[in-house]
Amino acid sequence: MTHKTYGISPAKIGNQDGFRFPRAFSRDYPHLVNASGEVEVLDEKTLLVRLDPAPTAADEDASLMMGLFLEFLMHQVVEQPETLVPYTEEMSQELDALLAGVTVEA
C-alpha cells in the first residue's frame, strides 16, 4: 500500500484548538471524514492518530439483519425449546477438522 502524506494546518474551532486537513484527504478517504478517534503523543513532534470510521449504511443494514435474526432465534427457543440441540465436543472437533488448512484474508 502506498502511503500518502497530507499537510495539516492549525485551526480554531469555536473555543477548541484543532487541525485542518486538506480537501485531498477527504477525497481520498471519504469514510474517515466524520470519524472519531484518539491521538497518542509519541514525543514532542510526533502524534499517532487512530480513527474509527463512522458506521456506513451497509454496517447499519448488517446490524439490523443480525438483530432480526437473533430475535427470530429467541422466538424459536421460547416457542419450541425441545428443538434445541446441545453443542458437543464432537461437533467442535468435526468443525475443526473441516476448517483445518483454511485461510481467511483480513
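(ticket continues) Second input and output from the same batch:
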Amino acid sequence: MPYIRLPQSGRPWFIAIAGAIVGALFTYAGPQVVNAMDRPSCAETVMQAVSTETTVNGTYGCFDRGLQLGLLTIGVNSDSSFADRIGQSGEYHFLRKTADGGYVYEYDRATTPHDRFQGMFSALSLPQTRIDFRHGNFLAAWNEPHNLRKAWAEISGQTQNTESRLFTFYVGPDGRITAIK
C-alpha cells in the first residue's frame, strides 16, 4: 500500500502557540484597558503626587474649594508645598471603582527602601559567580548558592517592608476631587 507523504511544518504549532499568547494577552489586558479609560485624571495626578517627593503640576488644582481650604490648615497651598508636606517615595496602583462612584487606589511606601535589582543579583550570587567564571573556576561558579526564592522576594518588593494605605477618591462633575476616604 503506497503512503502519501504529507508536508510537515512547524507552522500549525506556531499558530496554536501564538493564538494562546494573544488570547492570554486579551484576557489580561482587556479589563486593564477598560479600567485605565475609566479613571479620572485628577485622581491619577494626586496619586502620582503622593507617591513622589518632586512637584507634580496640577495637583493642588485637582481638589475642589472645600478640600483646598482643608489643605491650607496643614500648610499646603500649591503644588510644591503639596510635594514638600505630603509627597513620599512609593508606588501606587488603581484597584477598582466602588459602587458609590469612588476610585480606590493602593499606595505602598517602602520602610526599608533599597535597590531591588542589586538585591536580586546578590541573592543569585551573580557577582561571585562572575568572578569564578573569570578565574576559570567553573565548579565554584556552579556551587555558588543561587537563592531563587530570595531573588523573587527582591524583585517583587517583599524585602522592602512596605506600608500600604488605601485611598478612595470621589470626583465631582467638573473632574475635581470632592472627597477622600
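Agent notes: The radius of gyration is 25 Å. Strands lie at 91-97, 103-110, 162-171, 177-180. Closing as not reproducible unless the customer responds.
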